[in-house]
Design a protein that fits this description.
Helix content is 24%, strand content 28%. With 277 residues, it is of the alpha/beta class. It has 2 domains: 33-187, Rossmann fold, CATH 3.40.50; 191-276, Jelly Rolls (Sandwich), CATH 2.60.120.320. The protein has a 10-stranded mixed β-sheet, sandwiched between helices. Residues 197-265 form the Thiamin pyrophosphokinase thiamin-binding domain.
Length: 277
C-alpha cells in the first residue's frame, strides 16, 4: 500500500545517536565519494552497457560469483569485448568465488589465465553470496583497502527463496564485512538495510520529478518506532510489521529523505531512470 498514514504532519526534530548519510547513486556519477566493490551474482544482467561498464571500471574490487562468472563473460561478449585482448583487461574480475558448480571449468580457467584469483568456497552452510562477502572482507584486510561500499548485482526476479536469502544476507552484513555498506543492485531498484538510528538519503532530482517508487520493509521482526520526512506518505513514530502496516509504493516530496528507526529495516527504491541521470 502507498498511503501508510493519515497524519501528514511530521515531527521535524528527530534525534538519535547514529546519523548516517546515503548518496546511493554517487558511484554512477563522475565523482564517487568512496572506494567500492562490485559483486556479480548468478542472476541475469540487464543493465545498459554504457552505465554498467563504466561503473565496473571505477570499482576498487571486482568479483564474479560462480555462475555469475559465465553471465559476466556472456555480457561482455554481447558488447563485443574480448577479455583476452589486453586493452580489455579492466573487465577481468579480481576474484572469482563460489563452489563452482554453476560455471563451466573452462571459463574459470580462462579468467585465471588472464589474471583472476580463483577462490573455491565449498561450504554449504552459507550461500555463495554470503561467502563472496567474506572473501571481499578478507581481500580488503590483506590489501589494506579502505572500502566504503559493496554493490551486489542481483535481479529481484526469479525464485522467491533466492530473493529472501539475499535479504537475509543483508541482515548478516555486519558480521560478514563490518562497517562496509552492502547495497543490492537490480536493473530497476536498489535495496539495503538501515540500522537503528537516523539516516539521511539523498534522492536524485530526476527520481523526485518522476515520482519514482520507494518502500520501507520490516523483514524478520516488528519495527516498533519509525519516523520519516521527505516522503509523500510519511511515518510518524509508527509501528510497521508484516500482517499489519508496511510502507510500499511510496514516493518522494523532497530530494532528501530522513528515516529514524529503532530497529533494522529494509529500504528499497526504484532506479528505472538511472540511464537518464
Amino acid at each position: 500500500m502507498g498511503h501508510v498514514t493519515s497524519d501528514h504532519t511530521m515531527q521535524q526534530e528527530l534525534t538519535s545517536d547514529g546519523d548516517t548519510t546515503w548518496n546511493p547513486l554517487d558511484a554512477f556519477q563522475d565523482g564517487a565519494r568512496c572506494e567500492y566493490a562490485v559483486i556479480v551474482l548468478n542472476r541475469p544482467i540487464r543493465w545498459q552497457h554504457n552505465v554498467l561498464l563504466r561503473f565496473w571500471q571505477k570499482a576498487r574490487i571486482t568479483v564474479t560469483v560462480d555462475g555469475g562468472t559465465q553471465r559476466w563473460l556472456k555480457y561482455l561478449e554481447e558488447q563485443e569485448i574480448n577479455i583476452s585482448n589486453i586493452e580489455h583487461k579492466q573487465y577481468v574480475p579480481d576474484l572469482i568465488t563460489g563452489d563452482m558448480d554453476s560455471c563451466p571449468p573452462y571459463i574459470v580457467e580462462k579468467f585465471a589465465s588472464i589474471g583472476s584469483t580463483i577462490i573455491k568456497t565449498p561450504d554449504q552452510d552459507n550461500t555463495d553470496y554470503t561467502k563472496a562477502l567474506l572473501e571481499v572482507a578478507h581481500y580488503v584486510k590483506t590489501h589494506n583497502i579502505n572500502l566504503g561500499e559493496i554493490y551486489v548485482l542481483t535481479e529481484t526476479s526469479g525464485r522467491f527463496d533466492h530473493i529472501i536469502a539475499n535479504i537475509n544476507t543483508l541482515y548478516r552484513s555486519d558480521e560478514l564485512v563490518g562497517n562496509i555498506r552492502v547495497i543490492q543492485l537490480a536493473s530497476n531498484s536498489m535495496t539495503w538495510i538501515l540500522k537503528p538510528g537516523m539516516h539521511s538519503i539523498h534522492i536524485p532530482e530526476i527520481l523526485v520529478q518522476q515520482k519514482s517508487w520507494c518502500g520501507l520493509l520490516p523483514f524478520g521482526c516488528t519495527v516498533n518506532c519509525i519516523s520519516t520526512t521527505g516522503l509523500k506518505w510519511n511515518l510518524n513514530k509508527t509501528t510497521i510489521q508484516f500482517g499489519g502496516l508496511i510502507s510500499t509504493s511510496n514516493t518522494y516530496e523532497d530530494s532528501k529523505v530522513t528515516v529514524n528507526t529503532d530497529t533494522p529495516v529494509i529500504w528499497t527504491m526504484g532506479i528505472e531512470f538511472l540511464g537518464r541521470i
